[in-house]
Design a protein that fits this description.
Layout: H1 2-13, E1 21-24, E2 27-30, E3 35-36, E4 38-42, H2 54-67, E5 71-74, H3 84-92, E6 96-100, E7 114-115, H4 117-130, E8 136-143, H5 155-171, E9 179-184, H6 192-196, E10 210-213, H7 228-235, E11 242-247, H8 259-263, E12 272-277, E13 290-291, E14 305-306, E15 309-310, E16 316-317, H9 321-331, E17 373-374, H10 405-408
Length: 425
Amino acid sequence: MRSSLLLALCSAAASYAVPTIEAAGGKFFTSDGDQFFIKGVAYQLTPNDPLIDTEQCTRDASLMKELGANTIRVYHVDADADHHGCMAAFANAGIYTLIDMDTFDTYILPNDPWWNQTQFDRYSQILDAFQEYDNLLGMFVGNEIIAINNQSLAAPFIKASCRDLKAYRDSKGYRNIPIGYSATDIAELRPMLQDYLTCGGNASENVDFYGLNSYQWCDPTDYQTSGYSNLQTQAKDFPVPIFFSETGCNKPGPRLFNDQAAIFGPQMADDWSGAIVYEWIEEANNYGLISYGPKVEPTVTGENIEGGFTRAGSPTPVSPDFDNLSKHWASITPTGVARSDYDTKAVSTRACPTSTAGGWLVDGNVGLPSLGETLTASYSSVPSATGTASSPSPSETQNSVSGSSEVAGMAAGLVGVMMIFTLWF
């Protein structure tokens, strides 16, 4: 066992090239020209950066490869830390990374939003730190900043941050690393938020991809009952890649992951680019796919023990969830379309939504705040190259996990990535 781990660590220390990934139209493609579908897991072992312990990353990457994962999402990293070992370990396993750029003290506030130089500098430092890695799939400018419907006035600040980070990326000569946003699943704001972040006809201001944190599908259910049919209707021919940036309802449990057959099957795979399952490590919320040891009392302290759970060591699959997901991913292999055969003009251009009585407060294609601005009483409109705005489906459903962190607190910005460690049920 020790010799095999040493061999893996040596491999992790070496540079391992994987095809880079870009967003084109409504899909992700590798630099080899193949469409890329995300089979991912949320990976945040502690509130601190999980991508600095090469030995732990090597252990986890090996088991993730057995699971069938090709992507991890990391919510909090340290721009000044050394990530070479972990990024190489995941690359060796064929695993890409999606990184959140906001930090505990730089996220965009939902009720009193601003976008300033300090935020920009911190976000760009994260981009600087990871841009060299070929297995960097993309970056999030925010996670569930808008958590309830009357916070939608923060949306232009999300778009402004994306505009400025994309301009910075291009000015530095970095490859075209996709930069996007991860949204709360709020029925009253769909499809307005996803349409707004891709509307206006100016690609330099729009997100490169859109992630949705949705826990609607709670087994036993089906495509229609879960509300996934509505999600698919609103994502049809979406202009940028759209995927589930969190999913995996655990009520009533155990998790069957039957939603994966819909996401990667003929019902949705033409428009959706995959899913990230929440989450890797078992914690008090019972969403884990693996554990590093038995649960202990929350007051217990010790090396790698926090909140009653061990957060490092040899990962052991949580049964039957791990096997259920692994079996689904092994049996689902969408081929997609080759980059050379894909017409990016086939996607639909989204209109900028008008304000609604239900809570969407941004009226049309408003001018974006510049760096250093805070929210004022109103926005001024600017010309848009898009047509008529969509309306939410009358049969839309709320997120099925009532009162969950994914709806009530995780993304409110006030807790940001601390959702990983907090019990909201």
